[in-house]
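Design review, sub-item: ligand-bound model
Attendees: FS, YL, KQ
YL presented the inputs for the fe (ii) ion complex:
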Amino acid sequence: MQDSAAAKPTSHPPVKHGKVGVLLVNLGTPDGTDYTSMRRYLKEFLTDKRVIEWPKIAWYPILFGIVLNTRPGKVGKAYEMIWNKDKNESYLRTYTRSQAELMAASLAEHSNVIVDWAMRYGQPSIASRMEALQKQGCERILLFPLYPQYAAATTATVNDKAFEFLLKQRWQPALRTVPPYHDDPAYIDALAVSIEKHLATLDWEPERVLTSFHGIPQSYFDKGDPYYCQCQKTARLLRERLGWSKEKLVVTFQSRFGPEEWLQPYTDKTVEKLAQEGIKRIAVLNPGFVSDCLETLEEIAEQAAESFLHNGGEKFAHIPCLNDSREGMAVLETVVRRELSGWV
Ligand SMILES: C=CC1=C(C)c2cc3[nH]c(cc4nc(cc5[nH]c(cc1n2)c(C)c5CCC(=O)O)C(CCC(=O)O)=C4C)c(C)c3C=C
Ligand SMILES: [Fe+2]
Ligand SMILES: [Fe+2]
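KQ shared the predicted structure:
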């Protein structure tokens, strides 16, 4: 008995402890706009079964035979137009890093809290930052997928990756995931203030304001994804907060991909139709995007604007995402402080 007790190690390797990690996670971004970086990024993205739900046997021949040969070049050019040249990275990355830095400063009163950021696709990966938090002594981690509205293709896949990391750990940190905040008064208020502020900078008034959310295939909604309803609720609360009619604040869905039917009405078709019907002035915002990115800066601020003007419209404004603005950070901080309760 005594012999076997003596053979046991007297202590485990030294570990840091007592910290709480907050990990902000956004969608991801390529490392560069070149073909190889774009292909690597799109491959990781488009092999995610939460994003493309088709069976591999049907999807992979199309993905590897066509999409990954043609799309990297085409989308790389679009990324080039909206690349943050000062930092040689996409704005999504710039804003996500800045949000983490500002969050850390705002939580400085809690000396045991460490704030970090990661991307679901590309770098820095969720696993690498969770490992870094753990090494710094985080026994608890609050995982914040940066999507106000829940979708399996976005929120759930971030959570999946974090739990996949835990799967390999002997000594797991406790993990909390942040729920959607599509109806949080702080979020609705921030959107309203950002609209009002932006419209005040224009010398014209829009006849219509479009809230353009990223779409998902209609079939995902049919299978029970709550995304569509959460987008509608955000828009309804925003309308109520602004005192606007359904006609003035219109909900649309953008960024269709592939041949399937996606959530409607489509943003591109609506923009075209409004111009053709004689509407001369519109503004578009993207309330589902925490940060500006390819889908807002290129697809809306460039392409949708061009289409509106081409079809007879006269004035087009893109209202920026909340990004790392004071209003935007107030939303993220409200959510984080609430979800940290009992931990700090
Ligand atoms: C079937 C494919 C896709 C689904 C479903 C999807 C859902 C979805 N995406 C976002 C947010 C973003 N998507 C972004 C880019 C992007 N999205 C898809 C495809 C689907 N998205 C692709 C292929 C791409 C890459 C660009 C392209 O090839 O067109 C981005 C921008 C990233 C950046 O670096 O700027 C964001 C953000 C949401 C919120 C969502 C479902 C609710
Ligand atoms: Fe997308
Ligand atoms: Fe797009």
